[in-house]
Amino acid sequence: MPWPQTAVSEAPEISILLIEDAAGDAAAIIRALVFGETEYSFKVHRRSSLAEGLEFITHNKVDVILLDLGLPDAYNLTALTKVHAAAPELPVVVISGHSNLDTVHEALRQGAQ
Question: Is residue 80 within a helix (H) or strand (E), and if so which, with residue range?
């Protein structure tokens, strides 16, 4: 009698570039995405600086970018501006520990999701 086959996931895979310098925040985000209950499968690529993230997207295909606005090499909306210049077709979801509504509104105006 043959061994039972394990089910192969048919969930569509979404490739995410997470640009986040704080290791604890990145781990929490990755855990929520990878182990959360969803109909999708997420492959998360983490980079801890804007320069590393921009380098990654020049050589790899991703479906969405999760972007921290407090990076060591780009602070606030500078990071968003540079990501949009490098990959205008990619959706960018801004993540930040700051609660400045002016920054939030400006990020949305600049095309953040």
Answer: helix 77-86
